[in-house]
Write a structure and sequence with these properties.
CATH architecture of the largest domain: 3-Layer(aba) Sandwich
Helix content: 40-55%
Number of strands: 9
Bound molecules: iron/sulfur cluster, zinc ion
Strand order of the largest sheet: 5-4-3-6-7
Number of helices: 12
Length: about 300
């Protein structure tokens, strides 16, 4: 049942009766700021514990763009980490080289790591491929997010290795995860749908974990806002080319009409993973013949990109 309306006409928190800041449609419940913060942190802690994403002594490289998801990730990990003795954090910000956008987010990342007392490192696309994204994209702007994604993953992994990390954490939230399931299903790409990166099974390269994977995007924004961590930042000028923009709008509308859809999509992926366990669906991982990085073919995506310049 929905919570009653409290004094002054503001809906009341379903737990304590204080004025609510958010409505959770899937649970038909309002929450105040205090209980929202507690619920989000408990959900992340449970995700990490149930999937054994962190181990005592881990050095966790957190991909910190300075945007809301990675900001929330760093704040939450810094609070829950004492449960894993000896574990520590290093934040890594990748500077793609996007004029009019990146400078503000880098400043936000520096201010956050200073506030939390977390070690902060920077790496740029120029370090990885010799040019910034704006220059790489001249004449191929529509490929922006594909090129950016390939290089960001490489930059983050290299910087994490240099920092001595044992695991890389990224701020993907429930909406991102549900969008990915849907996009891969639309493409009919089962191997990619199953390419799970949150299991710590990779033999000889850095595992990637997504501790926010069960938290809706809306709750992450509210989590930051009620604690004064929310900063309005410019939007990347290449967002208009993002392949997932259409799926994001569609799915968010569908979720509003049918609460719980995103959770169901992510749960379906886990069911498919269980059903396909041991089946020869995915290509075995190989090594790139030029750089030695793990990849599914003969050449990794970064080396293929280098050849196309
Ligand atoms: Fe990179 Fe695309 Fe995100 Fe811009 S919108 S930062 S180009 S992935
Ligand atoms: Zn390669």
């Amino acid at each position: 049942m929905e919570s009653p309306v409290g004094e002054k006409g503001v809906p009341a928190c379903g737990i304590c009766g204080e004025p609510a800041v958010i409505f959770q449609p899937a649970d038909r419940r309002y929450l105040c700021g205090t209980h929202l913060v507690r619920e989000v942190e408990d959900l992340v802690r449970a995700t990490v514990q149930e999937n054994a994403l962190i181990r005592p002594g881990d050095r966790i490289a957190v991909g910190l763009s300075g945007g809301k998801d990675s900001t929330a990730l760093l704040v939450i990990l810094s609070r829950i980490l004492p449960a894993w003795p000896g574990a520590n954090l290093v934040a890594i910000t990748v500077d793609e080289g996007i004029a009019g956008y990146r400078a503000d987010t880098i400043r936000a990342a520096q201010s956050l790591t200073g506030r939390l007392g977390v070690e902060h490192r920077m790496v740029s696309f120029a370090d990885i491929i010799g040019q910034d994204l704006d220059h790489l994209l001249i004449g191929r702007e529509k490929e922006a997010c594909t090129v950016c994604g390939i290089l960001r993953k490489k930059a983050l992994a290299d910087a994490a290795r240099t920092a001595g990390a044992t695991v890389v954490a990224t701020g993907h939230n429930l909406d991102d995860e549900a969008q990915s399931v849907l996009m891969n299903a639309f493409r009919g790409d089962l191997p990619r749908l199953l390419r799970t990166t949150d299991a710590r099974t990779a033999a000889d390269f850095l595992p990637r974990i997504k501790p926010l994977a069960a938290v809706p995007e809306k709750e992450i924004a509210a989590y930051l806002f009620v604690q004064g961590f929310f900063t309005e930042l410019p939007e990347c000028p290449y967002t208009k080319y993002a392949l997932r923009a259409e799926v994001r709008t569609f799915l968010s509308d569908y979720e509003s009409a049918h609460p719980g859809t995103m959770q169901n999509l992510v749960a379906s992926k886990k069911t498919i993973e269980r059903c396909c366990a041991g089946a020869p669906v995915m290509e075995p991982l190989r090594r790139c013949r030029e750089c030695g990085d793990p990849c599914s073919g003969d050449l990794c995506q970064v080396c293929r990109l280098r050849h196309s310049l």
